[in-house]
């Protein structure tokens, strides 16, 4: 794991086996919270699991959508006795890998300051997490709802996506003011990006104008 900020780490890059998308990269994030460490998204590498242990373990693991569930999800749950959280509409798919301890279907505040915000569109259960760090930056964990693909900001439609919901989520994002955007999956890019208000609104414009429809044959995330 690499430390990004005083209270935030990013996992080593994971390259899922994919002949179609050899540059697909997945990451997870360890957030140090006063109530206990939180894990967001997907973390597969055993070395990262040891880093989590060295940092005091985790009390909760949050998925941004079911695509992040993996064999390591249950291993983390068992090793750290941590609670697994996901949106109620992701539960069925997540349960193929691990049993969730709790679900949500509306905006909530957890641990006093960790904002759980359903942002459907990419998947019905897609969720973002917003946290104002006491060290001065506001983090927004977006999963795959917006992401970087070959230097472009994009948003992605898959078989279960709803384009109308996705556009509403992008509009909702415009009211937020993150300092750092953190992505679970990118193509050939880092998993985080610092932004100011102008940059944030501009990247949302770019993503909305670059909707990659993976429901169409032969069209992939890294396509030009």
Low-confidence stretches: 218-224
* CA-based shape: globular
Largest sheet: 7 strands, mixed
Strand portion:
25-35%
CATH architecture type: 4-Layer Sandwich
Could you give the distance between the termini?
31 Å
Assign the structural class, choosing from mainly alpha, mainly beta, alpha/beta, alpha+beta, or little secondary structure. Answer: alpha/beta
Q: How many H/I helices?
A: 5
Major β-sheet strand ordering? 1-2-4-5-6-7-8
Q: What number of domains?
A: 1
Question: Using only CA atoms, what is the Rg?
Answer: 16 Å
CATH topology: Metallo-beta-lactamase, Chain A
CATH homologous superfamily classification: Ribonuclease Z/Hydroxyacylglutathione hydrolase-like
Order of helices and strands: EEEEEHEHEHEEEEEEEHEEEHE
Helical amount? 10-25%
The CATH class:
Alpha Beta
The number of distinct β-strands equals 18
Structure described in brief:
By secondary structure, this protein is of the alpha/beta class. It has one domain: Ribonuclease Z/Hydroxyacylglutathione hydrolase-like (Metallo-beta-lactamase, Chain A, 4-Layer Sandwich), CATH 3.60.15.10. It is built from five helices and 18 strands.
